Amino acid sequence: MNRIIKIIFLDILKNKIVVAYTLILALLSWSSFALEDNSSKGILTILNVILFTVPLVSVLFSTVYLYNSSEFIELLLSQPIQRRKIWLSLFYGLSLAIVLAFLVGAGIPLLINAPDGVGLMMLVVGCLISLVFVALAFLSSILTRDKAKGIGIAIMTWLYFALLFDGMVLFLLFQFSDYPIENAMVGVTALSPIDLARIQILLHLDVSAMMGYTGAIFKDFFGTTAGLIVSFLLLCLWVIIPFFISLRKFNRNDL
After folding, report:
1. How many other C-beta atoms can be found within 10 angstroms of the C-beta atom of residue 58?
2. Distance CA 192, CA 202 (A)
3. What is the largest CA-CA distance in the chain?
4. What does the pLDDT look like over 211-239, one tens digit per residue?
5. Which of 98, 138, 140, 244 lies 20 to 30 Å from 57 when distance is taken between CA atoms?
6. Are 126 and 29 in contact (CB under 8 A)?
7. Could you tell me if 98 and 15 are in contact, meaning their C-beta atoms sit under 8 angstroms apart?
8. Burial call 92-121: b when 16+ CB within 10 Å, e when fewer
9. What is the DSSP string of 187-227?
10. pLDDT, tens digit, 9 for 90 and up, residues 27-70
């Protein structure tokens, strides 16, 4: 299993897309801190990169890589190796490469320009978001053997969490503005890993006041130690559940 992980990991590191992704992250991160007069503004700029670019690259690259590796996967299946170990090896190899690219591209500028709790939170959240969308890519690729459909599912997944989900939440807020639904919004937030990440960073930057009364509700819950633990557990569940579903389907599918 370790040998398979090593092969996949080294193969991805040599991929030009991953190299370009790392360089683009580094360019955006360094320029964000260089152009802003304080680190907080730079972090807010990098936050947008983490919430939009990182999920898109993670889910799209992982989905395409899995489809392009179909012959390699079939070769592994012909060997006396458990299916569970093959799927886990693919996940570990892809996750390690994507997370390493993020740490090198965005992590180094963050640690140098924001060596505090906020910078560390950004690193942890960025790594978790990468893992979440790699797991969603595994689920997208196992749902259909058609590469075009699989990539379409991956893109729609990103669109839903990055754009459509927030629009749906705003629609609900406007429709039920006469009712006290702010507490319910805390529960709704758990349905989106990107929103969980965004709220954690904004709360640590002390800009929750800009979010109004709802921001105060979020701060009362997510701003506590218990709320912080719950939010990270929810992000971990967003990694575990999609991957576990994809693992079950991979074990049952006739490839």
Report:
1. 28
2. 16
3. 62
4. 444 455 566 666 667 777 888 888 899 99
5. 244
6. no
7. no
8. bbbbbbbbbbbbebbbebbeebbeeebbeb
9. HHHTT-HHHHHHHHHHHHTT-GGGGHHHHHHHHHHHTSHHH
10. 988 888 887 667 777 787 888 888 888 999 999 999 999 999 88
**Measured distance between the N- and C-terminal CA atoms of the chain, rounded to whole angstroms:** 20
Rounded Cα distance, 121 and 127, in Å: 10
82 φ/ψ angles, rounded to the nearest 5 degrees: -65, 140
Assess contact for 25 and 105: CB atoms under 8 A.
yes
Rounded CA gap, 47 and 102, in Å? 13
Q: Report yes or no: 98 and 134 within 8 Å, Cβ to Cβ.
A: yes
Instruction: Report the C-alpha gap between 130 and 54 in whole angstroms.
Output: 6
To the nearest 10°, report the CA torsion of 14, 19, 21, 26: 150
Name which of 189, 249, 193 is nearest 58 in CA terms. Answer: 193
Place of tokens 């730079």: 42
- Name the residue type at position 233: L
Report the distance separating Cα 30 and Cα 20, nearest Å: 15
| Residue whose token pair is 């012959």 | 71
DSSP annotation string for 136-151: HHHHHHHH-S-HHHHH
Residue at token pair 């320009």: 113
User: Is 254 strand, coil or helix?
Assistant: coil
Give the global pTM.
0.89
Task: List the one residue out of 21, 55, 18 whose CA is nearest residue 198.
Answer: 55
CB 175 within 8 A of CB 196: no
Distance, CA of 10 to CA of 92 (rounded, Å)? 12
Q: Is 36 left (phi over 0), alpha (psi -120 to 50) or beta?
A: beta
